[in-house]
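Exam revision sheet. Question 4 asks you to relate a sequence to its structure. Input first:
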Amino acid sequence: MLNQRETRAAAVVLCLAVSMPAHGQADKSLGSDENPAAEIQNGHSAETRWDSLRERVAQLSQEGRHADAIPLAREALQIAETTFSGPDYPLVAVSLNGLAQLHQAQGKFADAEPLYKRALEILEKALGLDHRHVAAALTRLAQLYQAQGRYAD
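Answer key, structure tokens:
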């Protein structure tokens, strides 16, 4: 469980991560077959790699290249789960949501749903039920259900 200071810091970073579009020029050298550990050894931090991956995923998604973005989004998720404060850290939810949105954009609703649900669980646990990011996560899940015609869920 996060202490109060960590929760506030995570909330601030999460606000920035989900509310700001990717900025700057994405690193065109990013590929799905690169080893994050090797890049860290070359002087790049895991956090920098995560940010770069998120930017590249956003760029690919804006270009409609969802299939190309998925391996990068998976790598970003893996980095988030292993680098930040564990698999239940709010920035993991950012990565989960990004990957889920890519699956949803491709009509792969069955792949998107567990990712959205896990992100929601993380945010509820870390930020509380009344937080606006929890409401946003619920909205994304509801939009997925609406896209499937699952109004009872």
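Marking note for examiners. The CA atoms of residues 123 and 133 lie 7 Å apart.
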